[in-house]
Amino acid sequence: MAEETPSLNDWLRRLDKRIFAPADTRVCAWLRIGFGLLVAINLGLLALDMEQWFGELGAVPYEAGRAAIDPDTVTLFSLLPKSGPALLVCGWIMVANGLMLTAGLWSRFNAVCVFVWLVSIQHRNHLLFDGEDIFFRLFAFYLIFLPVGVRWSVDAWRKKEPAPATAGSAWALRLIQLQLCAIYLSTVLLKLDGEEWLDGSALWYVFRLDDVYGRLPVPEWVTHSAPVLQLAGWFVILVEAWLVIGLWFRETRRFSIALGFALHLALELTMNLFLFEWLMMLALTSFLRGEEIEAIVRRLPFRKRAPASE
Question: Which residues pair with 166 in a beta bridge?
Fold first, then answer.
């Protein structure tokens, strides 16, 4: 007998199950730890120069910072001291929230705190930040709604109960995945909206930006060859376009994750983009399954191994 074609209601039920199914606690814990480390580094470097970036005697005084952004935006710095030692204390509180999120201590509370801090510093000095920081902020927001403290955390250790395989709902995890694909899709559309990426001149300019390019040397036959630069530009567009679709299908998921890692590692090794590539690679791992995450964790050198059974 021929198989019946799935109806619209069947597709909607599958979509509903896909979006709102219980979240795998291993994936959520992995994302919490990775994001917590990245955001602690991010906030830690800002905390070293709080007066410079957010103080009245720094680069952008409070009123100048508010004039450069939509006045309806909110920031804790409207209530906090504008300068002095208290500003430095705020910086290290931000870092502490990031570290406690990494450790899984009061996980949801610290996810909220990190999100509020990221919103506040970005609205305080809008001129300092870019798209990478927006993704940091959105990532923190999505983590608030995931069961990030159920496994591999101080919260789980204090409960002294076996961690469940699934908990809560995966809808916020799907938002992380959709956000990642939206970034790839938008970059593809922007690259196609013009001739620079198609004729290779975009990468020619990139290789000559002294402030971001130059971490590791690249052979001159790459940086000075118009055909090679043109092919490289097309390849980047094709990879990003592929990731928008390929990450969602079981048959192409692993290959797509590996391809995404190759792209971002190549950028990380040749350009100085701070933590953007690492945040993107972390988001790529949101497409891994719980058992794949656990297999990676078991291979970590500092992971305590259970004694062999007799």
Answer: 24
Residue 198 lies in a domain: yes
- Among residues 169, 196, 230, which one ends one of the domains? 169
C-alpha–C-alpha distance, residues 42 and 58, integer Å: 19
Does 128 share its domain with 212? Answer: no
Answer yes or no: do 179 and 163 share one domain: no
Q: In the structure, what pLDDT confidence band is assigned to residue 31 with cuts at 50, 70 and 90?
A: very high
Q: Considering the entire predicted model, what is its pTM?
A: 0.92
Distance CA 300, CA 310 (A): 24
Rounded CA gap, 30 and 283, in Å?
11
For the stretch 191-214, pLDDT in tens is 999 899 989 899 999 888 887 787
H helix runs in 107-170, sequence order: 107-124, 131-143, 154-159
User: Exposure of 8 by Cβ count < 10 A (0-12 exposed, 13-18 middle, 19+ buried)?
Assistant: exposed
Q: How confident is the model at residue 3 (pLDDT cuts 50, 70, 90)?
A: low
If asked whether residues 141 and 31 sit together in one domain, one would say yes
Number of domains observed in the structure of the chain: 2
